[in-house]
Amino acid sequence: MKVLFRGSIRANLFFLVLVAVLPLFTLVLVSRHAMRTQELREVRSEALRLVDVFAAQQEQITHGVQKMLFAMTRIPALQQRDVANCTELFQQIVRDNPTHANITLLAPDGDVLASALPFSNTNFADQPQVAEAIRTKRFAIGEYLVGRISNVPILPFAQPVISPQGELLGVLTTSINLELYYKLFEQTSMPQDSILGIMDRNGRRLLYYPPKASNPLGEKLSPATWATYSNSAESGVFPHTGQDGIRRLYAFHRLRPDPQSPPYIYVVVAISETQVLAKVDALTRRNMLWLLSATALSLFLSLQVGKWGIIRPLSKLAEDAQRLGAGSLDVRSGLAGLSGTIGLLARTFDTAVSAIDARTRERDRAEAVRQQHAERIQIISRITTDFTYSCIRAEGTFRLDWLSGAVAGITGYSIEEILAKKCWR
């Protein structure tokens, strides 16, 4: 840690600002993760809600068709297989209910007797829903089918026509044009790249919206994808990357005609994770941009404040210290009026310089006195002919301090020799 603060003041200020904003950057990234998690949770809930809406819509349609067909089988014209009246009735119903692609009345062998749409020598006996209705004498739901008369993708239904005596008189069929879901999908505010799909019990696409050439109607899903739907619970959500490379959350719901029967249809709603998370990422980028701007402004302001509040005063003190080192004792910082650490440092510097100046002046005065005393002694030494000396008592003994010049002439020894020999003892 000490190494980090050995650089210049500017570098330290820069480092401190970065340390101060680092928690904010961390907070933005942590918030991004939390928001992404929350968005995915909300997307999951929304996908389940929407798939339940579409599934409920399909259940209402199925139940409505079942009730309508059952009620129609009680009409005398159908009981009597009155082709003309049945044809007129079917045409009227289709005109009033465009979701029905067609309505037909079949003979027990599957031959078409009456239809809302024109037909010619058509037999439906090979269709699963017709065969099941004849076999069980109960309402039956078919699989993906391109109508032989309507020539559009349909989901077919069949209801046996039973006489009061329980005799099978025929089969009443109708089919739903699944394009009705297009408008329903468009009216639902869903994120971009969302998908609505419906599959039959065999995994064939009954509907895929918006349409794509890579996902044609009537084609089966891949075994792995179909296993996810068919081997799961009645409803659920799972992530999957589609053939278009977009990762989505797929919510599905199975529909059964009754609790004991196998599913006859699968409704799927897929919402793009990419589109949803792009909003979070855009918000994160915007927050990061604002934070980077704030960091840059903080760096600029800190450098300016540091320049005028720290660097300039410290540089002034450094210059004054250099002048002091060069021997200038009249230097003063001029910053003693500042508050805080810089002011304390300036006052301490000025006090130290004043003390050095005072000691220097005192030393100079003492040196001048000493010099004056030495000059006087030299004068005395030159004019006296006596053995004259002075000594200083120190630590219980005396030490020679000065000898007159006459001593050398009297003794024959130089003053240095006498001082060395300590000859007065």
Structure write-up:
- With 425 residues, the chain is of the alpha+beta class.
- Helix content is 51%, strand content 20%.
- The chain has helices at 9-72, 76-79, 83-96, 128-136, 180-187, 223-230, 273-325, 340-383, 405-411, 415-421, and strands at residues 100-106, 112-115, 140-141, 145-146, 153-162, 168-177, 195-200, 205-209, 235-241, 247-255, 265-272, 389-394, 397-403.
- Strands 1, 2, 3, 4, 5 and 6 form a six-stranded antiparallel beta sheet that branches. It has a five-stranded antiparallel beta sheet with strand order 8-7-11-10-9.
- A hairpin with a 5-residue loop joins β9 (235-241) and β10 (247-255).
- It is rod-shaped.
- The mean pLDDT is 81.
Structural key phrases:
single chain; 425 residues; alpha+beta; 6-stranded antiparallel sheet; 10 helices; 20% strand; rod-shaped
Summarize the SSE layout with pairings.
Blueprint: H1 9-72, H2 76-79, H3 83-96, E1 100-106, E2 112-115, H4 128-136, E3 140-141, E4 145-146, E5 153-162, E6 168-177, H5 180-187, E7 195-200, E8 205-209, H6 223-230, E9 235-241, E10 247-255, E11 265-272, H7 273-325, H8 340-383, E12 389-394, E13 397-403, H9 405-411, H10 415-421
Antiparallel strand pairs: 1-2, 1-6, 3-5, 4-5, 5-6, 7-8, 7-11, 9-10, 10-11, 12-13
Helix pairs in contact: 1-7, 7-8
Describe, in short, the structure shown:
By secondary structure, this protein is an alpha+beta fold. Helix content is 51%, strand content 20%.
